[in-house]
Amino acid sequence: MSRIASTFARLAPQGRKALIPYVTAGDPAPEGTVRLLHALVEAGADMIELGVPFSDPMADGPVIQRANERALARRVSLRQVLQWAREFRAGDPDTPLVLMGYANPVERFGVEAFVRECASSGVDGVLIVDYPPEESAEFAARLRDAGIDPIFLLAPTSTTARMAQVDSIAGGYVYYVSLKGVTGAAHLDVQDVARRVHELRRHVRLPLAVGFGVRDAAGAAALAGCADAVIIGSRIIELMENNPGDAAIPAACDFLRDVRQAMDRAAAAVSA
Hints:
Blueprint (H helix, E strand, L loop, with lengths): L2 H9 L6 E7 L8 H10 L5 E4 L10 H12 L4 H14 L5 E5 L1 H7 L1 H11 L3 E4 L8 H9 L3 E2 L1 E3 L5 H10 L4 E4 L12 H11 L7 E4 L5 H8 L4 E4 L1 H9 L5 H24 L1
Parallel strand pairs: 1-2, 1-9, 2-3, 3-4, 4-5, 6-7, 7-8, 8-9
Helix pairs in contact: 2-4, 2-12, 4-6, 10-12, 11-12
């Protein structure tokens, strides 16, 4: 059983849902990336999505775009990201780590080399935003053969055919984009998300993680009532951006700790 599957299996009997923070590798400071990952785990992260910096992150809003720009200005490369993954794994054998990014860096690195290096670095899942499932069966098979979960996106506009396609090749979890737009949007409708997640469960067997637009602890707790995991990225990066230097990581972790507590309180209330 993969680390991702093991994490969901561990949380389920407790009625708890996975908390998955997203951060961009190399931001706010390259030398602090591994320390940030460990701190997020200590603050309550069950898994971590680590973004690979790219110059044209089309699915991301201004906050994550700026994080990508800062990382690239410091010459953060995919090879460096893989090295940080390796260093994180050496100090944490249990927490799943998912690389999230875009096709161009992977293609330039070489798909076979990328999969090989992900496996040797202790990466558990890979989500390439602009690899559509209809064209990714071979890529997904390579990842699975290397013991890595291929993760894909579904959106409010996804057809039942797309849902079936994702269900047939995905692993680990399916990332449900909770709204139409880019990351960091602030118009999340929890009731609508719950309705759509209920519909998705008719077509997708994997755990469902909801992201895009989760801004606070209350919203995360509400989404945890319908999803298997909650993903938060833009708000964490925004807090680090607004609290520079030594204050960045504590600001992110204080927020994440509040989210974890709110999600756990919601789970306890349901089981009481």
